[in-house]
Amino acid sequence: MGCFLSKNGDTDRIARWRATGIVALRDSKLKTFPDEITKLDTSVRTLDLTHNRIVDIPMEINKLIKIQRLVLAENLIERLPVSLGKLQSLKLLNLDGNRITSLPDELDQLVRLERLSVSRNSLASLPMTIGSLRNLVLLNVSNNKLQSLPESVGSCASLEELQANDNLIEDLPSSVCNLSHLKSLCLDNNNVKQAPRNLLKDCKALQNISLHGNPISMDQLQQMEGFQEFEARRKKKFDKQIDSNVMIGSKGLDEGVDL
């Protein structure tokens, strides 16, 4: 760990962090995690260290027990400390664009976590313990090296959006059918040949499926039980977007099915 702050201005900067609960050091050319941050203990609610060159996260991060938003995107992080699981107030964890090869099992202790994004890393698998994240609404694991998703993902009872584009996934676990709140399933550019038989039947909130760049065909989806009900939800969402003049990125409106 290194010292980022100079003596001049230390007091004012730390006082501001304590008063606001927000520590924002984006694009600060940091190579190490600043000691001063962990010394703030319960004061920190949001920590944003995006776009630095940080390699290691110290075990002492567990001192930030009141933190709710932790953004460590675009760094050089290769591994996460097991002490990360002690941050049980955490609601958002963004680790996009690092070099992480595995997630610690202790992630299951983040019982309040609602949004987990680990896209553009080097994950070959996800821990089985991820199923303990019962409040997780968004899971983004796109652009990794995943060959499968764990069966336990079906226990993420609150999950609404699952993004797993640009991996090596061949099969989806049947437990995905347990995700009764799932609205969006994105699996572009994988090796998915077929979907779980009851996916459209059981995922009654599903409005969007994106499977561009997979061997699976539209005919396979159309023949699945529940397709007509899914199609009705998809069209309702699409029509609502048109009525609201909602545009989704450069591709235009999100129609809900892309094979």
Strand tally is: 10
- Output the CATH class name of the largest domain: Alpha Beta
Treating each run of at least 4 consecutive H or I residues as one helix, how many helices? Answer: 5
Report strand %. 5-15%
Q: What sort of overall outline do the alpha carbons produce when their principal axes are compared?
A: elongated
Overall pLDDT level? 91
Total domain modules: 2
Can you list the strand order of the major beta sheet?
1-2-3-4-5-6-7-8-9-10
Please bin the fraction of helical residues. Answer: 10-25%
Protein structure class: alpha/beta
- Identify the CATH architecture of the largest domain: Alpha-Beta Horseshoe
- Taking Cα atoms only, what radius of gyration do you get, to the nearest Å? 20 Å
CATH topology (level 3) name of the largest domain: Leucine-rich repeat, LRR (right-handed beta-alpha superhelix)
Q: What gap, in angstroms, lies between the N and C termini? A: 47 Å
N to C succession of SSEs:
HEHEEEEEEEHEHHE
Briefly characterize the structure.
This protein is of the alpha/beta class.
Could you describe the 3D structure shown?
The protein has helices at 10-20, 35-38, 199-202, 218-222, 227-244, and strands at 22-24, 46-48, 69-71, 92-94, 115-117, 138-140, 161-163, 184-186, 208-210, 257-258. It is an alpha/beta fold and 259 residues long. It has two domains: 17-103, Ribonuclease Inhibitor (Leucine-rich repeat, LRR (right-handed beta-alpha superhelix), Alpha-Beta Horseshoe); 123-259, Leucine-rich repeat, LRR (right-handed beta-alpha superhelix), CATH 3.80.10. Strands 1-2-3-4-5-6-7-8-9-10 form a ten-stranded parallel sheet. Helix 2 links the parallel strand 1 (22-24) and strand 2. Residues 1-6 and 248-256 have low confidence and may be disordered.
